[in-house]
Amino acid sequence: MKRDIILAGVGGQGILSIAATIGMAALGSGLHLKQAEVHGMSQRGGDVSSNLRIADHEIASDLIPFGQADLIISVEPMESLRYLPLLSDSGWLITNTKPYINISNYPSMDALMKEIDSFEKHIALNADDIAKDLGTARSANMVILGAATPFLEIPHDKIADAIRQIFTRKGAEVVKLNIDAFEAGYQFAISHMN
Amino acid sequence: MQKLMLLGDEAIAQGAIDAGMSGIYAYPGTPSTEITEFIIHSKEAQIRHIRSGWSANEKTAMESALGMSYAGKRAMVCMKHVGLNVAADAFVNSAITGANGGLIIVSADDPSMHSSQNEQDSRFYGKFAMIPILEPSNQQEAYDMVFYGFDLSEKLGLPVLMRITTRLAHSRSGVQRLASREQNGVKLPKNPRQFILLPANARRQYKSLLQKQDAMEEAGLNSGFNSYFDGPDKSMGIITSGIGYNYLMENYPDRIVPFPIVKIGQYPLPHSMISQIYNDCNELLILEEGAPVIEEMLKGFLNLGKKVKGRLDNTIPRDGELNPNIVAVALGKVDTRGKEIPSVVVNRPPSLCKGCPHIYSYNALNQALDTWSKGRVFSDIGCYTLGALDPFDAINTCVDMGASITMAKGAADAGLLPAVAVIGDSTFTHSGITGLIDCVNDHSSITIMILDNATTAMTGGQTSAAFGKIEDICKGVGVHEDHIIVLNPSPKNHEENMAILKKELEYKGVSVIIPRRECIQTAMRTLKESKKQKVGEPVN
Question: What ipTM was reported for this prediction?
Answer without folding.
Answer: 0.94
